[in-house]
Design brief:
Number of helices: 7
Number of strands: 0
Strand content: under 5%
Distance between the termini: 56 Å
Low-confidence stretches: none
Order of helices and strands: HHHHHHH
Mean pLDDT: 85
């Protein structure tokens, strides 16, 4: 009941903050478990797809997450906490990219990792707010977009606009 909820949380923002913290903690745990699965054959595509699928499933499986993001109950603190998690994940992705493209400079890996993490995060945010079928289509396009971008970065050493 709502009365029971407010025994533990003084108000709605406190409840949403707790839900968001739980989601961010779970996101970091999931990412770390996936980050240890670097393939021996250096084919990064299945790992990228699995990461996107795993985070999409996390979004779908946590109704509290959906309540916070879908209903727009987002505070500045929530945005800052989410950004901090994305920055930490991007740092780890940049390190992982060295395995796949050892000659790629650290600066290029860092910016490419940020582009990937923020792109996936933003598109999953949109996908979770849509009807399931449309959300799944957005996730499929997110995979295509990220694979195309990462192929250009890792396999050709390029990154779009440099200036």
């Amino acid at each position: 009941s709502i009365g029971s909820l407010y025994q533990f949380f003084p108000n709605k923002p406190a409840l949403f903050s707790a839900l968001q913290r739980r989601y961010l903690d779970r996101s970091q745990e999931l990412f770390e478990s996936l980050a240890t699965m670097v393939p021996a054959d250096k084919d990064w595509r299945p790992l990228l797809r699995q990461m996107i699928d795993t985070f999409w499933q996390l979004h779908c499986d946590l109704p509290g997450f959906r309540a916070v993001w879908v209903h727009g109950s987002i505070t500045a603190e929530m945005l800052a906490a989410g950004d901090a998690v994305n920055v930490a994940i991007a740092e780890r992705v940049a390190t992982m990219m060295a395995f796949f493209a050892p000659k790629l400079s650290l600066a290029k890996r860092q910016i490419a990792a940020s582009v990937l993490v923020e792109t996936i995060s933003a598109l999953l945010f949109v996908a979770v707010r849509r009807e399931r079928r449309e959300g799944e289509a957005l996730v499929a396009e997110t995979k295509f977009l990220c694979e195309s971008y990462l192929e250009a970065v890792l396999e050709r050493g390029g990154m779009g606009h440099q200036g």
